[in-house]
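Changelog note: in this version the structure field was regenerated for every chain. One regenerated record is shown below for reference.
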Amino acid sequence: MHSSVSATAPVRPPRPARTPPAPRAPLERDRECLVSGVCAGLARHLGAPAGTLRALFVVLSALGGFGVLLYVWCWMLMPWQSGTATPSRHAPVAWLLTAASGIPLLIVVTDGGWAWRYYYLPGSTPVAVAALPAVLVLATAAGVWAGLVDRADPTRGPRHALIVRALTVAVLLVVFATMSLRAMPALFLLLPLAGIAAVLSTSLIRRWRELSGERIRRIREEQRSEMAAHLHDSVLQTLALIQNRAGASSEAARLARAQERELRAWLYDGDSPADSDLPTDLRDYAAALELDYPVRIDVVSAGLSTERASGEAAAAAREAMLNAARHAGGDVSVYIEGSASGVDVFIRDRGDGFVMDDMPVDRLGVRESIIGRMRRAGGTATVRSDANGTEVHLRIGRGMDAPAPANDAATAGAVDA
């Protein structure tokens, strides 16, 4: 009799799931950087300390200048981080280069260590040979950096660039005068003159950039005007015809008006985003209401409005517009009048109207969201309503006294939300 022994294989523990590696940061230069943002961008992309990368570039620069070439290559190919802020540099590169040119300038002026003395007169040192090209390169680089980079830097500006360029031109003139007194060959005299020309040419380069940018903007405006004229004669007129034929309360009219508003904003507002002021906010809110309710809202602004979209007047105006769209419908007009003393907002509809005293006590939309909000903000809210429609007048300004509470109960109001 044979007994069979069943052997079971050992159970292996499950392998831990591998966590996917975190995605690398994009290879971009910081807009707030030390010099150019190359090392900071590489450090963020590789996950290494920025100081280590800076030291590595310094070591590679001593190996035949490879570090300098690699740094310049990264500088040219790495883009800036997305955004509209002007890049700002913490290191005063122009001043450092100007100060560094002072030592070889002192050697040039006092020691007279010129390259021609090294070859023709005994006793000259190699340090004197390197002094002349060093002062020319450093001074020229400082002037060019100040004219092309520091002038647009928000932490420095045109005045800083003018001072540095004046100093570097003075250094190059001193070198030219010293070389002339020592009867240097004409070929050597051209070197400081070429440096001065390079420093002064930054103004021409900047002017050329401004003219090129203006030309590009003018071409874009001409193309936008041609497109606007074409769309106005075709698409916009068709959308306006749809609204007139369909009526303000129809779904087709609401969609046509929303598309017309969006198309006009794209055509005439330009590339710059609109500021979040009171007229812009109410126009955007009116466009949203037209998609949800059978209403047509016209927002007109006159004068300068200092009220922001986050203010209490904007919140009260939105509440009044919502009430008009929800209960009155049809055509609603919003008029904003701004002045140095304050802002007035009028919201008018053509509904059936109502009486404030007949409204339930628990309906707090007009009493609190409009009248109470404006009173707490130091403004006033007046609501008039009859069989021809409702008008809400909001007023907020400097130094206004809060209205008495008794006026709220006696004030007529728009339909409460």
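Spot check on this record: The domain at 274-410 is CATH 3.30.565.10 (Heat Shock Protein 90). The chain has a mean pLDDT of 77.
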